[in-house]
What we know:
Elements: H1 12-17, E1 33-39, E2 45-51, H2 53-56, E3 61-65, E4 90-91, E5 97-103, H3 106-115, E6 117-122, H4 129-134, E7 143-147, H5 150-156, E8 159-167, E9 179-184, E10 190-194, H6 199-210, E11 217-221, H7 236-249, E12 253-256, H8 259-265, E13 272-280, E14 286-298, H9 304-314, E15 323-332, H10 346-364, H11 368-375, H12 394-404, H13 407-420, E16 424-437, E17 446-453, E18 459-463, H14 472-484, E19 491-493, E20 496-497, H15 512-539, E21 547-550, E22 553-556, E23 559-565, H16 566-575, E24 581-587, E25 592-594, E26 599-601, E27 605-618, E28 624-633, H17 641-660, E29 691-696, H18 715-718, H19 721-732, H20 749-767
Parallel strand pairs: 1-12, 10-11, 14-15, 18-19, 28-29
Antiparallel strand pairs: 1-5, 2-4, 2-6, 3-5, 7-15, 8-13, 9-10, 9-12, 11-20, 13-14, 16-27, 17-18, 17-24, 21-22, 22-23, 25-26, 27-28
Helix pairs in contact: 6-7, 9-10, 10-11, 14-15, 15-16
The protein binds ligand MTE, hypoxanthine and dioxothiomolybdenum(VI) ion (MOS).
Amino acid sequence: xxxxxAIKHESAIQHVTGSAVYVDDRVKIEGMLTCWPVLAKYARAxxxxxxxxxxxxxDGVLTVITAKDIEGKNNTGAIVSDxxxxxxxxxxYANQAVAWVVAENEDIARKAARKVELELKELKPILxxxxxxxxxxxxGEPQKMARGKAKQALKNAENTMTNEFEMSGxxxxxxxxxxSWVIPDNEGNYTVYSSTQxxxxxxxxxxxxxxxxxNRVVCISPRMGGGFGGKESQANPFAAIAALAASKTGRAxxxxxxxxxxMKLTGKRHPLLAKYKLGFSNTGKIEALDINLYSDAGWSxxxxxxxxxxxxxxxxxxxxxxxISITGYACxxxxxxxxxxRGFGGPQSIVIIENIIDDxxxxxxxxxxxxxxxxxxxxxxxxxxxxxxNDVRLEKVWKLAKANSNFSRRKAAIKxxxxxxxxxxxxxxxxxxxxxxxxxxxxxxxxxxxxxxxxDASIQLNHGGTEMGQGLHTKMLQVAASSLGVSYERxxxxxxxxxxxxxxSATAASSGSDLNGQAVKAACETLKSRxxxxxxxxxxxxxxxxxxxxxxxxSAKNNPKNKVSFNDVVxxxxxxxxxxxxxxxxxxxxxxxxxxxxxxxxxxxxxxxAAVSEVEIDAFTGxxxxxxxxxxxxxxxxxxxxxxxxxxEGGFVQGLGWLTMEDFIWADNGHVATFAPSTYKIPTxxxxxxxFEIELLEKSPQAGVxxxxxxxxxxxxxxxxxxxxxxxxxxxxxxxxxxTVNLALPATPEATLAAIEKVKAIDEIKTS
Length: 768
Ligand code: MTE
Ligand code: HPA
Ligand code: MOS
């Protein structure tokens, strides 16, 4: 069986040789035009006038698209219609596009864009979460979840704590920036090539902006050079612009953002502010949490409500909180529209509860890992939203991670090291993860596939998921090859296209292989049942249900020598007038959620993991070295251990970037200040620890999921929190006194130095 084998990513060679073709690398289309935006210079303003004439007068400029050119809807808001595509009256964030120049090439388009005259009246923008709270500037209503009596329990608790925690956002920094090509035919139809995680939504957005039916638009998502959530909703407007250009000129048109534009125009991970009151016992058991979350959602709603909801779902991480009240506000600010990013609101709330746990530990002078254990969910307990937990694998991953990393021995060694070193301190921490798998908006949990067998027995595989580097296509090939019992090499994986599989959900929520895998398998089952009839006739048997498809042969289960080749069966099927193509469909069973009551079973299952990280901080520079990382991850019965380990490494390092390095800054005038890798530092190979060990939990198939596997795309991001906790552990050791550590997120060297100063200051106060 191909499933379960550590075969290489289907595009591995192309990736490492730089020959992989992305949207803008396709063979150029003759006469294709380039679009370039005209950007507003204020974060908030009224539009007084737009004069496109000077640009239009330039040679090589075909047109300048403004709101007036839109025949359909001037709106690309996927869930709430609050996202104008081309600003007409109001500017809501710095660098919002007011017009797009369409020209023969990029050079001309850029020059012409500078010539468009834009008269604006500047208004005072809202640029911080605290300002938004003051002005009650929110998207929609706050969301709430609750269990027990938080207020009452806070009164009765042995210890209480009131605190705030603010964290920064994160740029996706996918290697391939946003890109779209739109090719019109001369009959009113459009082919859209888009770097999108959500081809069906890109298709429908293009259709409604052009004011045409969806059946006139085919959206194709070739492989993406990374999406990470940044292309779940935000590829749509760029495809719509290219489509407007194509429709107005009758020629192919392209939009491709350079890095600077991509960083200035598109949404980030949501920055977030938490304000909370915590109650806990003298043994460190969390008794009550009353918490408000405020995300900086930016100018339009985008996916902010779903993202906030996932924050509400994950504030417990792995811990049973008997009394809890949580409210989430999506703040409306004059910034880019923040969007999906690996973890989808989970990282923001999980880092809060892990920070809280550490505060409890340091307040009580009990080891943080013990406090974590004390609060772990037990089998059969209910989450605050009413989902009963079965098959809880926390203890399993936890114990194994501790054992693999020699946790207690190293803790003692670090204590010695820190006592002997004044300017270098080490820290060690272990953090767990429980992450809910499914789209929390239940109906999105569906997928389709379409498989075509040709008479030479070669096969095309289509499924509704998109490939962004995560290895979904490889896994789907494995599923199809295993289900049909044929060789992997027989297949060609087709680019994701809306005319092959319609009405798909975004490839997101880590559920790509769960959902599409089942759809692929369903299509294979249909084909097998048809081919079995043909094979039974060929083998002169009367029970097609007793045939087995294996190793490119169809044979009798009880007499494997009685067999025919898959190729012969296919050839025969054609002559017997049996259809050789089939669709497959899947929806996740038995999940639901009631927004009114905040209760339900939103997740089909949970993925579990634990990570142990050790750091060494240099007290002169505030810089740290990540000395060692040991991870244990539950991936069920892995579809492909090679790819799953790659996802764990990549997710962890991306989380490390968010937590410790990536300082995304908006200047006081609302402009993005960090729009290049020179000022926005993402992790490189240098930050990867030399000791980076990953163990996949063995013998842990997940019932009801494709071949017993589990989702892996997002969870590893959140175990990088162990690095932040290890940093805090090291920082705490700069003082002899027992105290909580206040470390900013991201924990840049400056922030680390500031945190060290703070713990030392308390030391001085206490000893003087
Ligand atoms: N891995 C790579 N290489 N590139 C990506 O863009 N996106 C992540 C994760 N892993 C991503 C990635 C995110 S945000 C999600 S939701 C999942 O992959 C989506 O794919 P899956 O559902 O097939 O795991
Ligand atoms: N995760 C990721 N993307 C989503 C979700 C989710 O839960 N819901 C809608 N889009
Ligand atoms: Mo991932 S943030 O669900 O695209």
